[in-house]
Amino acid sequence: MDLMYNSTRNDEERATASQAILKGLAGDGGLFVPERIPALDTPLASLAGMSYQETAYAVMKLFLTDYTEEELKYCIRSAYDEKFDTEEIAPLREEAGVYYLELFHGATIAFKDMALSILPYLMTTAARKNHEEHEIVILTATSGDTGKAALAGFADVPGTRIIVFYPKNGVSPVQEKQMVTQKGSNTCVIGIRGNFDDAQTGVKRLFSDQKLKEELLAQGFCFSSANSINIGRLVPQIVYYVYAYGQLLKKGRLQAGEPMNVVVPTGNFGNILAAFYAKNMGLPIGKLICASNENRVLYDFFQTGAYDRNREFILTSSPSMDILISSNLERLIYHAAGKNADQNASLMNQLNQTGRYTVTDEMRRAMTDFAGGYATEEQTFAEIRRVHQESGYVLDTHTAVASAVYQKNFSDGSGNVPAVIASTASPYKFARSVMTAIDSKYEEMDDFALIDELHRLSGTPIPRAIEEIRNAPVLHDTVIEKNEMEAAVKRFLKGE
Fold it and tell me: Is 381 helix (H, G, I), strand (E, B) or coil?
């Protein structure tokens, strides 16, 4: 029997996995969630001998039940191939006493590749299964990494177009260069004068605009999303936590059934929510440690039970976490409310109307698996320096936030329960911040000189993704006001 998906805001809206992936967002603005979290049916001890692709199939077959074995294995095989620069796909590195799960070996050197390499295959397969005849228009807001990974995944995929909105002054120079040099006749990249939350809110507004939807359907287009609100993004992210556990077994660091802790730097909450799903499948995870930067809205939520985005938006050296509206938290709220869609919808309406909501004590008790922590800019840079001095290993700024949070608040020094820190981006993507954290003498060097110096210092190869943009021409230079997003979408679809 197929596993069905419900909207977090309306129990009446149900979809198969392929339908949920195709739609991206539920019609009522809610997010699709599985009606139940399936139990992992692979013996834990077996995980040690499984490749990443085998692990992916073992996990994803349980969630994407209306895909045939042949379809799903085709998607997995097509996604996790030579686009990644290591056969392991997601290596687990032990450095300075903890394990860093390297999720940045894909085409755009950030963890978003782990899901966005497979999403185009899942989506085009879903379109065939559901006899979708309209051209699929992917609308995405990015805080830096999702945009490039989505662009790379969907570029020149037949039957699709992709439009990415990013905050013009809210991403790193390398992140911006990666996006604005993107090739592909079906791609469009637009900077907005505002922050990520403005871009994300604008995209959600376009999704929920029924008049616009009908207008575009008449022209042969339908919207979908590559943001982490799409369940086709979330399910592939569960895989790498299961794989990490298998690697700890393989290294002899754990016996089957013993727990690991997981530390995740997060802004939109999808990456750590995937770990929550893995735990609820039966993977032995102890604490789910949610690491925030100075935009500490999630830390404050786990401390108080009050979610409040009415605060200063701070631009930090970890821009992919510069987020005040964590969209995927809605899925956790729905679970914590006992799958009460009405209660969840009420809280989300409060967030929309007032910018805040407070959960009940009972809901807080349902979220005790989570712990929050945050790191200041100073602590983040100090952690990059410390890890490099101790081991020669270089962290990017986002991974350093998680590492600092773990060291400051959760490391008891015993090492009894191994900590797996999600390493979400290559340091080459944030070379300026990383190198000046290691030594202030690098402040005067230009971006690509810093990349060359990072290569020398770390002994790691410069990723292909960086070399490709070194002299690449800018192909997308549109910048708009945040209230001009609908008009920009229409212009692109008309070919203007």
Answer: helix
